[in-house]
Automatic annotation (TrEMBL):
<comment type="function">
    <text>This protein catalyzes the committed step to the synthesis of the acidic phospholipids.</text>
</comment>
<dbReference type="InterPro" id="IPR043130">
    <property type="entry name" value="CDP-OH_PTrfase_TM_dom"/>
</dbReference>
<feature type="transmembrane region" description="Helical">
    <location>
        <begin position="77"/>
        <end position="102"/>
    </location>
</feature>
<keyword id="KW-0472">Membrane</keyword>
<dbReference type="InterPro" id="IPR004570">
    <property type="entry name" value="Phosphatidylglycerol_P_synth"/>
</dbReference>
<dbReference type="InterPro" id="IPR050324">
    <property type="entry name" value="CDP-alcohol_PTase-I"/>
</dbReference>
<feature type="transmembrane region" description="Helical">
    <location>
        <begin position="12"/>
        <end position="32"/>
    </location>
</feature>
<dbReference type="InterPro" id="IPR048254">
    <property type="entry name" value="CDP_ALCOHOL_P_TRANSF_CS"/>
</dbReference>
<comment type="similarity">
    <text>Belongs to the CDP-alcohol phosphatidyltransferase class-I family.</text>
</comment>
<keyword id="KW-1133">Transmembrane helix</keyword>
<keyword id="KW-1208">Phospholipid metabolism</keyword>
<dbReference type="Pfam" id="PF01066">
    <property type="entry name" value="CDP-OH_P_transf"/>
</dbReference>
<keyword id="KW-0444">Lipid biosynthesis</keyword>
<keyword id="KW-0594">Phospholipid biosynthesis</keyword>
<comment type="pathway">
    <text>Lipid metabolism.</text>
</comment>
<keyword id="KW-0812">Transmembrane</keyword>
<feature type="transmembrane region" description="Helical">
    <location>
        <begin position="122"/>
        <end position="146"/>
    </location>
</feature>
Length: 181
């Protein structure tokens, strides 16, 4: 049963999310082959599937539990792949990569644990979506080697932790209300 959406698992939004998951190794191969700027365009293609799947899911009432789990997982796995590629190529520091990894791993593990314990999960909010866009901009600035790229990345890392704190608060409030009903 699919609470809060359609019961169809294989719909267009979920297919787009699977495409985004498949673009992760494509990005990795392109980046590792030395085509760093081309890899950024693979990342942009993945970002477009993210925007499109969310739009189609909401417009056509095709939001599914599977989609609500896979979509953020695909986003986080792509971002972790990108961060690792930037780290191992020396384009970002260990400290920046560690902060991003800590935040994203915590969000992935926390969401999975709570989902499998039957807790309600919080859908993406405007700040979370903005954070994703800001990370894309930071990655672009780093890949194209603009002088303020690393300062901007740290700004985005701080915003991402604020967004995570808001998600945690929303999660606690949502599940506190559902216990009372």
């Amino acid at each position: 049963m699919d609470v809060g959406g359609t019961s169809a698992v294989w719909n267009l939004p979920n297919a787009l999310t699977v495409c985004r998951l498949l673009l992760i190794p494509v990005y990795g191969v392109v980046f590792a082959s030395g085509f760093v700027k081309s890899a950024f365009f693979v990342l942009l293609a993945a970002g477009l599937t993210d925007v499109l799947d969310g739009y189609v899911a909401r417009k056509n009432n095709q939001v599914t539990v599977v989609g609500r789990m896979l979509d953020p997982l695909a986003d986080k796995l792509m971002m972790l792949t990108v961060i690792l590629s930037l780290l191992f190529s020396g384009m970002i520091s260990w400290l920046a990569a560690g902060a991003i990894f800590l935040r994203d791993a915590g969000m992935i593990i926390g969401s999975a644990v709570f989902h499998f314990r039957g807790k309600q999960t919080v859908p993406a909010n405007a700040l979370g979506k903005l954070t994703t866009v800001l990370f894309y901009v930071a990655i672009m600035l780093i890949i194209f080697q603009l002088p303020f790229a690393h300062a901007y990345l740290w700004f985005v890392i701080i915003i991402s932790f604020v967004a995570s704190a808001i998600y945690i608060l929303q999660f606690v409030l949502l599940n506190k209300r559902s216990v009372g009903h």
